[in-house]
Amino acid sequence: MIAAISLEAPSLSLIQQLIADNRMPHLAALQREGEVVSLDPPFLDGAVYATLYTGQHLSEHGIYSLFTWSAPEQKLRLSHELLSDDTLFRRLDRAGKRVLAIDPPEHPIQELANGVVVSGCQFRSRVHLAKWSRPPSLGKELFNLLGKTPRGEETFGQPSQHHLLHLREILLQAPSRLARGVERLMEERAPDVLWLHMAAIHLAGHQLWDTASVDIIGQSSTGTSLLEKSLIDVYLEADAALGQIRKTLPDNADLLVFWAKGMGPETCRSDLLPEMLERILNPRTIVHTSSGNDILTKLRSIVPTSLRSKVADALPDSLSLQLTARLGTIGKDWKAIRAFSLPSDGPGLVRLNIHGRERNGIVTESEAKVLCDEIIEGLQTFCDIDGKKCIVGIERPGDHLPPGPKLDGLPDLVIRWSDEPSTNLRGVTSPVYGTVLRKGAGSGRSGNHIPGARAIIVPRSGTYRTIKGRNPHLVDLNATVCAAAGVPHNDLPGQSLLAYH
Q1: How does pLDDT run across 66-105, given as a tens digit for each residue?
Q2: Do residues 167 and 285 share a domain?
Q3: Residue 201 shares a structural domain with residue 225
């Protein structure tokens, strides 16, 4: 048996500090007993789940965000709609292996003949953890054990202290809910593969990283005091749950604990990109100061966060997500658009409206390189209003990814923002294109992803082996699980981190 446990997106520096202070004893024990391996960071953070579930590189599966662009349809699609049906769980299931998977984020609903999948055990979220289980009866069993699953939503925009305190309570309870669920289901089943995600660490990083750095609605001194150490409290609860889960495992179970991305201060400026791009593409329309002009940014700035939350909660989760995807392109005159920004809560993403590639494309292949160069040159004239650099690099995916059938479906340009925190950023400015002011409060997050992918391998039945010819990568985790279960994976690019004789 192998147990694969994702810690999602922790802060490596915070983990190291807590271990040094003897406050995360269970993770510390795993690091002492196992091999700690640094993984190459994903080219785009939003590709992590599809990479884990398919075992393929981004250029092979093509999913880089919850909202991924579909060129033939000229619209945004939800990631789970585009994910190949041939997931890791299906591969294991076809081979007759018993899978127990709990809370795989953004995973499509799948029936398994030999295993079970539960989503929404720790908490439910329309974006991250939809509420479903296969078989459906499992949901009732966990309800009887754990009670009603709380809803832990992240709403972009200015947060309220009331909402953050509500999230805090949910996230503090989540690791224990996961551990208790594992304990119950392991009693009834003897899986070949246990696959878990500690989702609370991820959401806590975004919302509770540094609440003092965010302009919060309705603050009180008591609430501020509670929130101050909330992120650490969630990490400690997760470590306790890790210890509980480990007790449920057979003595010969191999253990793979990993996280695909790190967490640090919020630095995203992607809400400003649509207007920055508009200035470059249509310089005749430049005004000295203006705010973002895309529909989603305008709605988030005009409609209060609390009202948007109520509207979203009143709708079925799937409909709410579909509406958000539709708003990303509504009102666009594609016959006049040479390039456009794609929704992102991290790096800026730009795609060209190329004829023959996009359904309504107008840019010829011969014009594409010149247009890319024009956009890059224009973006590099911008800096933060205080004069600090806002962009540290602009990349083309093809320069960083292996060849693959989905490479042409990715953003043409990826804008890497500076490491300067953006929570209180007023806007950006250019001597050529003027000033773009931020509408509203930006994302409202205080934390966001940084590189820092790691894996800890604790062999019991297998032996650790190094990756040959390159650095370890996320695709190797899928291959490792397949190798541990004795399932062929020669058609996948990954190498196993465990060897079996």
Answers
A1: 999 999 999 999 999 999 999 999 999 999 999 999 999 9
A2: no
A3: yes
